[in-house]
Every structure is written in C-alpha cells, then in structure tokens.
Amino acid sequence: METTFKNHMTRFLAKEAESLTGNDPVKKILVLAAVGLASFITCFAAGYYIGKYMAIFY
Predict the structure, then answer these.
(1) Are 31 and 21 spatial neighbours (Cβ–Cβ below 8 Å)?
(2) Which residue ranges run through the membrane (predicted)?
C-alpha cells in the first residue's frame, strides 16, 4: 500500500513539474530544489515551535 502511494505521488509530482516547466531540465531542477527548500523550512519551523511549546512543560 505504502509503495503504491509513493509511486502514485512520484508520478503526480513528475507530471506537475513537467507541466510547470515544460521539458527544460534546468527549470525542473530549480522547481524541485525550491519545493525541497520550502519543505525543509516548514518542517524546521514546525519542529522549533513544537519544541518551544514542549519546553514550557519541562
């Protein structure tokens, strides 16, 4: 089940990236890098605020 979901998600993201950038590999890499950076920043911020919230109780 999990592998199938990953495969579907990967195909979906590949189609979206191609429709957004066309067939230009440089643009594709830049879009994927931007998405990865945004994901990292979001997760880092969430972890920071969750840690800050939990520190109140200790």
Answers:
(1) yes
(2) 29-50
Assigned token pair, 45: 């911020």
Counting every residue written for the chain, the total comes to 58
Output the pLDDT for position 18. 72
What is the 8-class DSSP label of residue 22? T
Q: Of 17, 19, 41, which is closest to residue 31 (Cα–Cα)?
A: 17
Q: How far is CA 37 from the centre of its chain?
A: 7
Threshold 0.70, pTM exceeds: no
Q: Which helix (H) or strand (E) holds 27?
A: helix 25-55
Classify 1 as helix, strand or coil: coil
